[in-house]
């Protein structure tokens, strides 16, 4: 039986499969946020992905090509002209090539990755002439609470930031561990109870960006999404003033209800209890004991006296949270 038609069919199917994958990834009109960065951190991460992929292809492509060539050339056929060397078992030249090139590639990837890792350290402030704004983030079941300590306002499942201005995120959790992620601005970082993480991001262009919880945290984890609205500075200031005038403060009782498991709706609060973020961070620390996450380098902030529900004060000034080193990085 002639095996040539089967080989041709297999080759055609392979080529079509590769073409379909390439078309799906780059030309089908889909949105690939990681490859459409809108900030300096996201752009640097995209560069790292491309560089490491290209270096890996230096090894992968020749191997794939050689695999096909060897299978085709040395296939079983009556008229085969391939050299038959049953006792050949060594070649110093070939050994040097297929061991040397991968080693060089791995060393190059290691050096490049290490440099980017230090440059993209999450707690490292971004270089800018603009003063950063601070946003305190707490992941709940199954919603996100954002507190603006300098502005004295808070939001749920929606985030507004000024474009081209660094943002310092201080992150914790009042629920199971989650992962804060805005794909177009930078990589994800964990939110964990009993400790505060720090993440610096920036949006270089106005727009609405997708944000989500990237860690499984229960029944409705897939609905832990939020919008990130990057707007010009004057529009941001107008939004802050409008939020303050809404007369919808987040009280202590309101936060207790908000923290209960359930899907949250987009909400804006004109004020929130002073010291709320610090109390969330230290909520699970027994008084007089050491921080259970002390091994990560985080020191628990001092616990402030709980504000009464009837006397909700806007947060004034940035109350710095002690940040531990990131587990996931930018």
From TrEMBL:
Entry membrane topology: Multi-pass membrane protein
Transmembrane segments: 7-29, 49-75, 96-118
InterPro entries reported for this sequence: CcO_II, CcO_II-like_C, COX_ARM, Cupredoxin, CuRO_UO_II, Cyt_c_oxidase_su2_TM_dom, Cyt_c_oxidase_su2_TM_sf, Cyt_o_ubiquinol_oxidase_su2
Subcellular location, principal: membrane
Listed EC numbers: 1.10.3.-
Origin superkingdom: Bacteria
Major enzyme class: oxidoreductase
Region of interest (Disordered), residue spans: 291-330
Keywords (A to Z) from UniProt: Cell membrane, Copper, Electron transport, Lipoprotein, Membrane, Metal-binding, Oxidoreductase, Palmitate, Respiratory chain, Signal, Transmembrane, Transmembrane helix, Transport
Gene3D superfamilies from the UniProt entry: 1.10.287.90, Cupredoxins - blue copper proteins
Cofactor: Cu cation
Reaction catalysed by this enzyme: 2 a quinol + O2 = 2 a quinone + 2 H2O; 4 Fe(II)-[cytochrome c] + O2 + 8 H(+)(in) = 4 Fe(III)-[cytochrome c] + 2 H2O + 4 H(+)(out)
Cofactor note: Binds a copper A center.
CDD domains attached to this UniProt entry: CuRO_UO_II
Domain Cytochrome oxidase subunit II copper A binding: 130-242
Listed Polar residues bias regions: 319-330
Domain Cytochrome oxidase subunit II transmembrane region profile: 26-124
Subcellular location(s) per record: Cell membrane
Chain's role: Catalyzes quinol oxidation with the concomitant reduction of oxygen to water. Subunit II transfers the electrons from a quinol to the binuclear center of the catalytic subunit I.
Record-stated family: Belongs to the cytochrome c oxidase subunit 2 family.
PANTHER family: CYTOCHROME BO(3) UBIQUINOL OXIDASE SUBUNIT 2, CYTOCHROME C OXIDASE, SUBUNIT II
Full protein name: Quinol oxidase subunit 2
Organism: Paenibacillus terreus
Lineage of the organism: Bacteria, Bacillati, Bacillota, Bacilli, Bacillales
Gene that specifies this protein: cyoA
